[in-house]
User: What shape does this take?
Amino acid sequence: MKVADFDYDLPPELIAQEPPRFRDGARMMVLHRQERRFEHRNFTDLAEYLRPNDLLVLNDTRVIPARLVGRKAKEGTGGKVEFLLLEETAPLHWDALMRCRRRPQPGEQVIFGDDLARATLLEEGEQGRVRIRVESELPWPLVLERIGQTPLPPYIRRKEVVPEQQVADRQRYQTVFAREPGAVAAPTAGLHFTSERLAELAAGGVRHALVTLHVGMGTFRPVTVEEVEAHRMDEERWQIAPATAQMIGQARQAGGRVIPVGTTSVRTLESAAARPEGFGPGRGRTDLFIHPPFEFNMTDALLTNFHLPKSTLIMMISALAGRELVLEAYREAIRERYRFYSYGDCMLIL
Assistant: This one.
């Protein structure tokens, strides 16, 4: 299967640059797989499509302020260096992506803020990856909150970012149920939920359970090969607690549907189910790449946002709903002027 088979043309003005005014104020396309039809609704209508004993599965990963901008310590004027922290592999040791005009050499240092922290380049890897060691007089988590910026996706382009906007992004590019720090991107389908909305659903018999997948480059790295099967996903860390596994089993026994919120929740559930021992609680690392003709074991329906052309995410939902139907739905969304990507509208696949 060709990667080009998952391409579509999106007018740039449909890429959402800001979140909706209200967290639950997005539009929602409802895609009925069996009937091959669409409805145009709002996210606030979600309860109409859910039934008692259905279970929503939410990803509780928390986005860290992973974007660091510093200057080279070696140069008096300080050449600009930007890092995107990916994963802390040991205390104060990070895998990161580095961007700068003249790359520092292993052993050189980068200064952040008013010398609140420093990073020493330990080694360089492939595709812009580096390994660094950070140091600071104050506790590193506290310093990171001070000097780090929200790692918004590159398709969110603003002429000027004012401090008030940075504060707003730190709140809105984070789900209300985020609790496990470690992601460099938000599980964006979860951004639509409010605590009040979850409580209303629970009052109607729709419960929710939490899983963790720390969103990293594995989810968002561009596909650069021609054949889908040749792409390899970067590993991401996942965890499913015993209580969550129990709730999923109870929902299935009661005749309810398991409905992941977002592709990262799908990847977590299906990765756990793909183990030799089958689905259950646990933790690990996954490089599972879901694309047609994948057979789903844990996903009965899905709430998701609209995804980039030729991305692993649009391939995943094509495995669930069929490539032709998904592309038809995207063309319909474009005609109806839906807002796309992280801060955009959503799609409920039934």
About this structure: The chain has a mean pLDDT of 94. The first strand starts at residue 27 and ends at 32. Residues 140 and 261 are 32 Å apart (CA to CA).
